[in-house]
């Protein structure tokens, strides 16, 4: 990659939590993003204002041309949140499944797209750093973080955390952005209780990983998880709305902090799908 581009050296507390970043933290993030984007521009297109939307697409096309395996091609996908007035929000999904979004207060839809492209380009460049490759040390840290997120689960082979470790070990050498969609699938399966159900059916971690490694995060999977939440709502009235409120807060905080969003966004989308289905059934 470009030898003189260095990844951001800071790691602020709000990047690891669901709290909203304060004004100083937002300014630090903005300066870091601008620095990386400008550095990238100097190494690829010379001095001057860079079109970050084009630069982001060209970055991933360059990776594909270098032989990086991309199941769904190198297309970068943008999704604007419907709104009739500012501030506007735009999400961007990268090849490999990682998702970022506009992190600034954007007065236009075009500015929201540029903001999303900026944070995605910064992370794409940062992703080339050796520290982002899945290694033994990386696996130990990721498993520890996962265990802290889901206390009560241990690291034995038949648990969700054990399956997560096995999945990481089978993907050594890949970068996190290339691995994101598969990881999100397993995060959702753990969150939704599906991994626990498979464990109770005596499925081995190899069987679970082998099955879902070839699955894409598509409408069929989202619909099935939405049906699971509808069933929970019937058993415990109000559970769906509580989880949706929590997911929306988590997504908003993560977006404003400039964090990777695929897992919280998918959670919110699945819960919204369940909520809409529940509302439709009440009206019918």
The chain-level mean pLDDT equals 81
Domain unit count: 2
Helicity, as a percent range: 55-70%
**Straight-line N-to-C gap:** 57 Å
Reading side by side through the largest sheet, how are the strands ordered?
1-2-3
What is the CA-based Rg, rounded?
A: 20 Å
Order of helices and strands: HHEEEHHHHHHHHH
- By DSSP, the count of extended strands is 3
Structural class: mainly alpha
Strand content: under 5%
Describe this structure as you would to a colleague:
The protein is mainly α. It has two domains: 20-128, Double Stranded RNA Binding Domain (2-Layer Sandwich); 134-283, no CATH class. It is 59% helix and 4% strand. It contains eleven helices and three strands. The protein has helices spanning 23-44, 52-65, 109-126, 136-149, 160-169, 176-192, 194-200, 205-213, 219-235, 239-256, 262-283, and strands at residues 77-80, 90-93, 99-101. It has a three-stranded antiparallel sheet. α2 (52-65) runs parallel beside α3 (109-126), α5 (160-169) crosses α8 (205-213) and α10 (239-256) runs antiparallel to α11 (262-283). The longest helix is centred in the N-terminal third of the chain and has 22 residues, at 23-44.
List keywords for this structure.
11 helices, disordered N terminus, globular, mainly alpha, 284 residues, 2 domains, 3-stranded antiparallel sheet
